[in-house]
Fold this sequence. Notes:
Layout: H1 2-61, H2 70-81, H3 87-98
Helix pairs in contact: 2-3
Amino acid sequence: MRAAATTAVVVGTAGAVSGHQQKKADAAAQDQAAQTAAYETQAQVAELQAQLDAQQAAAAATPATPDIPTEELEKLGQLHASGVLSDEEFAAAKAKLLGI
């Protein structure tokens, strides 16, 4: 009977130790998964910030286009000055170009 009791204590202790080790392993795996997720999130945030910075730099580097199409007006003026467009045609084309 004493051998059976000793065996029961040993088996119970082994089971408790095994369960404790499994819980520690599970906790470590969860910690690792959380750290990996946090790292991936930080990497995504950094990538998005870099994209935003690049877009802002490109927007700052791009000269603003004027609302008035200056080149087109100059062409119309040259056509009018050379006699290709009459006064009425020039006025109509200019109004169309300016959205008047």
